[in-house]
Amino acid sequence: MRLEHDFEVYMKELCKKIRNKDVHASLKLEISDHLQTLKEEGLLAGLSEKEAIAQALSRMGDVNVLGKQLNKTHKAPMDIKTIFPVMIASLFGLIVMYYLQFHSTFAALQDMEVFRKSLLFYLVGILLMLSLSRFDYRKLLKFSKPLYVGTVFILLITVLFGVRVDGIPFLILGFANVNFIEITPFLLVISFAGIFHSWNWNDSRKSWLGVGILALPVLLLLTTSAIATSIICIIACTAIMLSSRASMKQTVAFTATTFIWPIFNLWTLSQNGTLIDAGYIKNLGTSHFIGSSLQLTPNLISEVHTDFIFTYIVYSFGWLAAVIALVLLLFFICRIWSTAKGIHFNYGKMLVIGLAVTFASQFILSILTNLGLSSSLGVAMPFMSFGGSHILLEMIALGLILSIFRRRKTAVQINEAENQSLGES
């Protein structure tokens, strides 16, 4: 049934008062339903249709007053508490690259422009993050299955035909080699959140299908030497299963089975000794609280700008700087985890949970490696280590989290604003 012309005009004028266009569609639905209810109440009271429409509009309230209230409710503020630690950590990472580039012998030895490239990656990443924060993440839902298929296909191509660097296959794009393995967990989390947000794990057929969907990319990763990425992916799959209401029995069975090979590989590496020089780790114990040196001895370790950036921070800037970096990243992870609790749309909640677990796993594995508590796993520190693909993907993930935060309570806020306006009238 077509809405009455007066109702259409009212809602059109109302939407003009609300700057956040993301809520216009759902708001129109809520307002029209409320107006129809008020109109029916008037008709039941014996009013004519014209009188019932006029009364409904009157009871709804002045369009300017309601519009101002809804605009205030739906300002969709930027989540500064999430952005701030990331920007500071990124700036700190950029400073580290500056010192590596201009105040150490590392850049000359490796023939790399780590600072200039990092600056470019961060700038592009920030633009992507800001753009995606305004993007309606719910539009990604319909692309979940194609994204999964595409990710698995590219992963297969990378595993079969990629150029191997330290055992890790890189995707060949002609103009560059991309570490697709490293960004796979982020892409899988985005696709898994859409696929499993309404999955029925109680159905036996769908249960086996779900396990197969989760296991396929994990099995492909396990065929490579990317132990850290495999572990991160398995933990992310576990989080997705739990948040999509899979039973504890199903989740434990999947996690325990897929963890066998990574644990065996870790045990083998521990038997062979860590890949980071023991003398370099000992230097951590003698590092000053504020910092002792900005001169890196490059023959101690070759991956200081990527996998062992935390070790370099302790060695060159001191434990205070390292602790600040840890606190910033830890606060960021805790912040996005707490954000997930306030999200009412299950797809958005699962997306944030998956990304939070991915960041947390990456963070923990990186710290364990840098402190010599684990064999060298080749995992980058989020937002700080050098690398184009992981910085861009992490900024994109942050943009999605900000987009979800902006829209986390849309339906609830509309109802509250309406009730408040009706109460005032």
Radius of gyration: 26 Å
Q: Could you say which structural class the secondary elements and strand pairing correspond to?
A: mainly alpha
| Helix fraction bin | over 70%
First-last Cα distance: 28 Å
Please tell me the total number of domains.
2
Q: Strand percentage, roughly?
A: under 5%
Q: Note the total helix count.
A: 18
Low-confidence stretches: 411-425
User: What is the H/E string?
Assistant: HHHHHHHHEEEHHHHHHHHHH
- The 3D shape can be described as globular
Output mean pLDDT. 81
- Tell me about the largest β-sheet: 3 strands, antiparallel
Subcellular location: Membrane
Main location: membrane
Keywords: Cell shape, Membrane, Transmembrane, Transmembrane helix
Membrane topology: Multi-pass membrane protein
If you had to describe this structure to a student in words, what would you say it looks like?
The structure is a single chain. The chain has 425 residues and is mainly alpha-helical. The protein has two domains: 5-75 and 410-424; 80-406, no CATH class. It has 18 helices and three strands. Strands 1-2-3 form a three-stranded antiparallel beta sheet, covered by helices on one side. Helix 2 packs across helix 3 (49-60) and helix 8 (144-161) runs parallel beside helix 10 (204-222). 41% of the residues are buried.
